[in-house]
Write a structure and sequence with these properties.
globular, VC0467-like, 12 strands, alpha+beta
Length: 192
């Protein structure tokens, strides 16, 4: 069963958001970068900090080399309630940096080298913080209907009618994931 939630989008079941352990998940769209026997890691894609990337580079030097003009989203994502001081860049899949988490489509990079490499910045996302689950925890929560799960595949996500607060995050994810195939997001649709 492990691994089946890698490259999926999670939205907390609204019925669970009154539970204290799910308060941090309410109304968040979480992209699961990795799910395996060792647990799962994901980042929130629809919550942002209220200041531009340049403002963060004073506190986080690692962000100074990233040009907001090359990113899929010019805002810095508030990726989750854990590791809130740890910057990341979610880019097309690469396997060359020492501190990263990969799936077949995207890489969640924490390495200084990734932030300094402009070749991976195109249509990437930048943020601070993440979500994580221990071994078996996410499977248990999904089987208990705590999450709505959607494979992060272009045809499926384009057919679903997400509320506005989720749709822009889905569009941004699809841009980051499929931009290398010359796809662009336009009015909620992907087009050549």
């Amino acid at each position: 069963m492990s691994g089946f939630l890698t490259d999926n989008v999670l939205i907390a079941n609204p019925a669970t958001t009154d539970l204290p352990q799910f308060a941090a998940s309410a109304e968040k769209l979480i992209y699961v970068v990795h799910h395996g026997d060792d647990g799962a890691v994901g980042v929130c894609l629809n919550e942002y900090f209220g200041k531009p990337l340049a403002d963060f580079s004073e506190q986080y030097e690692i962000l100074a080399s990233v040009s907001p003009l090359s990113l899929a989203s010019v805002t810095v994502h508030s990726g989750g309630p854990l590791a809130t001081e740890l910057p990341w860049i979610l880019s097309r899949a690469v396997d060359i940096y020492p501190h990263q988490i990969n799936n077949k489509s995207l890489s969640l990079n924490f390495s200084q080298e990734a932030f300094a490499d402009p070749s991976i910045h195109m249509d990437a996302l930048v943020g601070l913080g993440s979500f994580s689950w221990g071994p078996g925890q996410l499977e248990k929560e999904v089987s208990g209907f705590m999450w709505h799960c959607f494979p992060a595949q272009k045809p499926l996500l384009n057919r679903l009618h997400f509320e506005h607060k989720y749709q822009s995050a889905v569009d941004t994810l699809l841009t980051a994931k499929y931009s290398s195939e010359s796809y662009r997001v336009s009015s909620g649709e992907l087009c050549h």
